[in-house]
Design brief:
Helix content of chain B: 25-40%
Shape of chain A: globular
Strand content of chain A: 15-25%
Number of helices of chain B: 11
Number of helices of chain A: 21
Number of domains of chain B: 2
CATH architecture of the largest domain in chain B: 3-Layer(aba) Sandwich
Structural class of chain B: alpha/beta
Radius of gyration of chain A: 25 Å
Number of domains of chain A: 4
Radius of gyration of chain B: 19 Å
Order of helices and strands of chain B: EHEEEHEHEHEHHEHHEEHEHEHE
Largest sheet of chain B: 6 strands, mixed
CATH class of the largest domain in chain A: Mainly Alpha
Strand content of chain B: 15-25%
Distance between the termini of chain A: 65 Å
Oligomer: heterodimer
CATH superfamily of the largest domain in chain A: DhaL domain
Strand order of the largest sheet of chain B: 10-9-8-13-11-12
Number of strands of chain A: 18
């Protein structure tokens, strides 16, 4: 069957299939991180972004109007946007839906125009667009779409096949545009994510069987937990079990049938889909272990997710009850007149939260390296700060865009994003706030002051790689500076000292060391002494940051 | 033309020696250190004071006793017709309040100036008073002039530590609240009544930049702009036990105010015991015109 046009129903299906496909490749995309730091979460961020939209799309039912569908995709992804790639993805959707919203059905010409708008919107959202990223892939796709439209292609299957093929080609070329990708031997992770979305959508167009079940579950849990709480009916199989098998053995039709038969013997609601490299398994069973063991025979497992559906059901009922009690209380005490200026910082770790609060930050969003807060999370936090102007300190380069997006969506308060890329920059920004000056003056001062802080973040490598011509082995310690790797090696103390050495110069006055949750106070104190010995003329300050993943955050100013 | 004596206290930073040269009378501030009473610049030098402060001795300040104040006034009024008395800021000490009360018994011959100055700016007020007296104003007119002029000055102080300030209590809660976990160098402002938090810095050079920026802003927006030297303002630097840094700060300040005559003095001890050693301050006063 070939299509000249697609309607809202089909588009909805394609969108959900795209979301689904991205979700299933999430881990793989996470691992495409250039820096081998344990914070690669492009896949997670993009997935959470698109799932937020998928939730709203599923809530519309099977036959949405084009306008409602577009609204759901656009607002859902904008609010759910996390991380830079997530924000860019949400902007692509925003541009795309802007064009298609007035149509009942879409042909090649409309789609090509919408792609162009999508790319234009996304480029605008990024301050300094970089080539060799998701933007380049999106641009390639849009250019190809335009070319095909002008050549008179009208068959959408042909159109999508060609577009996808070209997108994959552009993706494969990203290492040529971004040397860091080439050195690390990976393609751009955000670009890969975009390709997965389009592949999923293409599969849906071709009529391939897509398992939407987990999407629907997500939407149940998030969107309408009360109304759609599962009926009281007894649950026969208690554990919803999902995982991927990264195949290292042949998995043909015969093995697939055998596997399915086995799963049927231990449960129901079975999904077993193979795409050549991975097998996706979904089963409701009373013994998840059996399913996992069976899977292990064919390769490594990933994305294992086991939920106790009986408990979840009870929780859901309970939560619904609690919510009706909680809601009025949450409405807060009678509003005091808003203060002029408030601060929100994004940070992970008890110690760092305490530090931020002690210098005047009103609300700390837990997050950072491992968990980028979404635009919606930031907006929620803003709601809790009763101030006319709210400064936001993202403290991570991957959160700045989401914060900016929040600032654009916010209407009743003035949000100002100070683009802090590290925790020490955030601390410096708050410290330089002056009560007497205007908001604009403060913004200017903070932005100029953060440029004077040098930060080094010490963690471990999750895989072998080469960056900045430095060969790094898995599990090596690394000091990551503002512009690349400052030090690496097997000895943590040496790496910390080398990291400091790479940052300190004759103008430096203060070295601040924030030790993480995996470091003992004694070890941290010992490092402080080593630093103080090596730089006798500088003040050295040690603080318990309590941050995960990064053993030490060090700043020199 | 009446013969006018200018009286101040040792918070002005005017030493007994300097006072004689200028023709000003300086009441020494009393200090209780341990169980002993000392008088600033009489039997307590700056060096001795910091030695005791750093040694952790409990130092408390008080105001000159009414007896001492009246004794000085009485003896001066034998020689002079009137007195202009310029005590330390009423926001920081009860000295001014007491003096105002005592002056009520002197039938207007003693005019107490409540212009909320301290240290180098208080010193400047005394010099202004001398100038005004020489130009023929009487004590009441001098007082009125100085009180009207009180906001034409500004002081920014960067502390090395919050330790002493917390013990003291002569600051607003806002200033006391800053920097509980991180080591910060608070920049305080004396503007009118109280010492309040202005900004904060993590390093000395950041703090100096904040102060220089603030003074520059004051001069540009409130005191008639940065005129070519000698300029329309008096610039001063004060410090607690920190002379070398004060000299370096002077050089930096001269880059913004080229050719200006910048006066450097140690902060008076009753301020020092509240803020501790290692601080730096920049002050400015608008030059008077009459």
């Amino acid at each position: 069957m070939s299509y000249q046009e697609i309607d809202a129903k089909m588009l909805s299906k394609m969108f959900l299939a795209g979301a689904k496909n991205l979700e299933s490749k999430k881990e793989y995309i996470n691992e495409l991180n250039v820096f081998p730091v344990p914070d690669g979460d492009t896949g997670t961020n993009m997935t959470m972004t698109i799932l937020s939209a998928a939730k709203e799309v599923t809530a519309l039912g099977e036959n949405p109007s084009m306008e409602d569908l577009c609204k759901a995709i656009s607002s859902g992804s904008l609010r759910g946007a996390r991380g830079n790639s997530g924000v860019i993805l949400s902007q692509l959707f925003r541009g795309l839906t802007k064009v298609i919203k007035p149509y009942h059905s879409l042909n090649v010409a409309v789609i090509s125009e919408s792609c162009e708008k999508a790319v234009e919107t996304a480029y605008k959202a990024v301050m300094k667009p970089k080539e060799g990223t998701i933007l380049t892939v999106a641009k390639g796709i849009s250019d190809k779409a335009k070319e095909l439209a002008s050549e008179g292609v009208t068959d959408l299957e042909v159109f999508m096949e060609k577009v996808l093929e070209h997108g994959k080609y552009v993706l494969s070329q990203t290492p040529e545009l971004l040397p860091v990708l080439k050195q690390a031997g990976v393609v751009d992770s955000g670009g890969q994510g975009l390709i997965e979305v389009i592949s999923g959508a293409y599969d849906a167009l071709l009529g391939k069987e897509i398992d939407y079940s987990s999407l629907e579950q997500e939407s149940d849990a998030g969107q309408k937990p009360v109304a759609e709480a599962p009926e009281e009916a007894e649950i026969k199989f208690g554990y919803c079990t999902e995982f991927l098998i990264l195949l290292n053995k042949n998995f043909n039709i015969k093995t697939e049938m055998d596997f399915k038969a086995y799963l049927e013997s231990i449960g129901d609601s079975i999904v077993c889909v193979c795409d050549g490299e991975t097998v996706k398994i979904h089963v409701h069973t009373n013994d998840p272990g059996l399913a996992l063991q069976k899977g292990l025979k064919f390769g490594q497992l990933s994305n294992i997710k086991i939920d106790n559906m009986r408990l979840e059901h009870e929780e859901r009922v309970q939560k619904a009850a609690e919510k009706s009690v909680e809601k009025p209380i949450e409405k807060e005490e009678p509003k005091q007149p808003p203060k002029k200026v408030g601060f929100i910082a994004i940070s992970a770790g008890d110690g760092l939260s305490e530090i931020f609060k002690s210098i005047g930050v009103d609300y700390v969003i837990e997050g950072g390296q491992t968990m980028n807060p979404s635009t919606a999370d930031i907006l929620d936090a803003v709601d809790r700060v009763n101030a006319e102007n709210v400064f936001i300190l993202p403290n991570n380069k991957n959160i700045i865009l989401a914060a900016r997006q929040a600032a654009e969506l916010m209407t009743d308060k003035n949000l100002l994003v100070i683009p802090t890329k590290t925790i020490p920059q955030g601390i410096t920004a708050v410290i330089n706030y002056m009560d007497g000056s205007s908001v604009d003056e403060n913004e200017e001062v903070m932005i100029s002051e953060i440029a004077k802080v040098k930060t080094g973040q010490v963690t471990y490598a999750v895989r072998d790689t080469v960056i900045d011509d430095k060969e790094i082995k898995k599990d090596d310690y690394m000091g990551v500076g503002d512009n690349g790797i400052l030090a690496n090696g097997k000895d943590l103390t040496e790496v910390v000292l080398e990291t400091v050495a790479a940052m300190a110069d004759e103008d430096s006055e203060l070295i601040s060391v924030y030790y993480g949750s995996d470091v003992s106070e004694e070890d941290a104190e010992a490092i402080r002494e080593r630093i103080a010995d090596a730089w006798p003329n500088l003040d050295v300050e040690l603080q318990n940051g309590g941050q995960p993943i990064y053993y030490y955050l060090v700043s020199v100013e | 033309m009446s013969k006018i004596a200018i009286v101040t206290d040792s918070n002005s930073g005017i030493t007994q020696k300097e006072a004689k040269e200028l023709g000003i009378y300086v009441l020494p501030m009393p200090f209780m250190i341990g169980n002993e009473l000392y008088y600033e610049d009489i039997n307590l030098t700056q060096e001795q004071f910091y030695e005791k402060l750093l040694g952790g001795e409990n130092i408390s300040t008080s105001q000159p006793s009414p007896e001492e104040v009246c004794k000085l006034w009485d003896s001066l009024l034998k020689e002079y017709d009137e007195i202009v008395h310029i005590p330390m800021s009423s926001g920081l000490s009860g000295s001014c309040q007491s003096a105002l009360m005592l002056a009520q018994d002197y039938d207007g011959r003693v005019q107490v100036v409540d212009n909320q100055r301290i240290s180098v700016t208080q010193r400047r007020s005394c010099q202004d008073a001398l100038e005004l007296a020489a130009s023929g104003l009487d004590a009441k007119a001098i007082k009125d002039f100085l009180v009207k002029d009180k906001f034409n000055s500004s002081i920014y102080i960067m502390l090395d530590t919050l330790q002493y300030l917390k013990k003291g209590g002569r600051i607003t809660p806002a200033a006391a609240a800053i920097g509980t976990l991180l080591k910060l160098k608070p920049v305080l402002q004396i503007q009118g009544e109280k010492l309040d938090a202005f900004s904060k810095a993590r390093t000395t050079s950041q703090g100096k930049a904040v102060m220089i920026g603030a003074i520059k802003n004051d001069v540009e927006t409130r005191f008639g702009g940065i005129l070519p030297a000698p300029g329309g303002v008096w610039l001063q630097i004060a410090h607690t036990h920190n002379e070398e840094a004060a000299l370096a700060l002077k050089e930096e300040l001269l880059e913004v105010f080229p050719g200006y005559d910048i006066y450097i003095a140690p902060l008076s001890l009753s301020v020092s015991c509240h803020i501790g050693p290692g601080s730096l301050a920049i002050a400015c006063c608008k030059k008077i015109s009459y």
